[in-house]
Write a structure and sequence with these properties.
Layout: H1 10-16, E1 20-24, E2 30-33, H2 35-41, H3 45-48, H4 73-80, E3 84-92, E4 98-110, E5 113-123, H5 127-161, H6 166-189, E6 193-195, H7 196-204, E7 214-217, E8 222-224, H8 225-244, E9 254-262, E10 269-277, H9 290-302, E11 306-312, E12 315-323
Parallel strand pairs: 7-9
Antiparallel strand pairs: 1-2, 1-5, 3-4, 4-5, 6-8, 9-10, 10-12, 11-12
Length: 329
């Protein structure tokens, strides 16, 4: 018996898989599909190939309008080459009926560039099972929130017992609250990932003191939990410092938070900027505290990149640069 005959051909494995599997190009069009995928949709292979996955998505907004590719988490994953798991999406069969299914999207990366995605679909045939899964998710979210609340209580009691300054207790509790808010965003997504816009909005929410004081700008990117937590802590510290000493400590001061994705020779990179203006004069601190280490060292290390904090005459400037791939880890 030859070595080759000991193994089932890879194409045969895909063809016989009990779940629906499809290869999509970078626009979301079907390139290859297995028999189970066609069976799930009640469509022929000829009808599926070349068409966009979004043609088969039914999900509607509250007003009854179909969702667009722009706000679809599945297409966010396809566009940015980031893995995602949508716990429930509504799809259309050939006969016009709809069905709920779980969907996984995984990018196909060749020579450092996204060439397409692999889509896996499993129908959710038992509504009762779906409801039970949702109940477990809500219970887990509630327990995690309780853990943060308990942690805050323990920290507060411990520090007060050793006569720690009230400001220290407040600072630590605020950092725990920021992490709790980030966790809420991640749990709400149910996929372990979260929109960078949602993460940024949650991080700065407690520091918004007026319309337009803090502006955010950048493409919507899907973040993994590690990146979401790291960016949350960095933005929280920057907001706290700006409220105490920087642009947010005066009425005319403003902050711009913006980010971009840059194509490189071998891989894409992510850059995020914090820019304060119209605030009081700033100067570097004499000692580098824990907050500064969070803003520069920790976030850079967590995302395999680097952070830089500059005390410019126009206001504090902060830059984060990291491999785009690190955002989904």
């Amino acid at each position: 018996m030859t070595s080759a005959s000991k193994h089932i051909d890879y194409d045969e494995i895909v063809a016989r898989s009990p779940v629906g599997i499809a290869q999509l190009d970078v626009t979301g069009r079907h390139v290859l599909v297995n028999d189970r995928y066609c069976e799930i949709f009640g469509r022929t292979r000829t009808d599926v190939l070349g068409r966009e996955l979004h043609d088969f998505i039914l999900t509607a907004d509250l007003d009854g309008a179909r969702s667009t590719k722009k706000n679809s988490p599945i297409y966010e994953s396809i566009r940015h080459g980031t893995p995602t798991h949508v716990t429930e999406e509504s799809f259309l069969r050939q006969d016009g009926t709809s069905f709920p299914a779980a969907c996984w999207i995984r990018p196909v990366v060749v020579d450092g560039k996204v060439r397409g995605s692999i889509c896996t679909i499993i129908p959710l045939t038992e509504k009762r099972g779906d409801e039970q899964q949702g109940l477990h998710h809500r219970e887990l979210s509630h327990r995690v929130k309780n853990m943060f609340a308990i942690a805050q209580a323990i920290v507060g009691q411990t520090l007060r017992s050793i006569s720690a300054p009230r400001e220290v207790v407040h600072t630590i509790n605020q950092r725990l609250a920021a992490l709790s808010n980030a966790n809420t965003v991640l749990m709400r997504a149910q996929s372990g990932n979260a929109s960078i816009i949602d993460v940024a909005e949650a991080a700065i929410a407690a520091h918004r003191s007026g319309a337009g004081r803090i502006q955010i700008s950048g493409p919507d990117i899907v973040l993994g939990s590690k990146a979401a937590l790291a960016i949350t802590l960095a933005l929280h510290e920057l907001c706290t410092n700006a409220t105490k000493y920087g642009a947010l400590s005066v009425d005319a001061g403003t902050v711009l938070i913006e980010w971009t994705v840059v194509d490189g020779a071998t891989e894409k990179s992510f850059r995020m900027y914090w820019k304060e203006q119209d605030g009081p004069p700033v100067s570097p601190p004499i000692h580098k505290g824990f907050g500064s280490r969070l803003i520069v060292d920790n976030v850079g290390s967590d995302l395999r990149g680097r952070g830089e904090l500059i005390f410019d005459s126009r206001g504090v400037r902060w830059t984060l640069e990291a491999p785009f791939a690190a955002l989904t880890e």
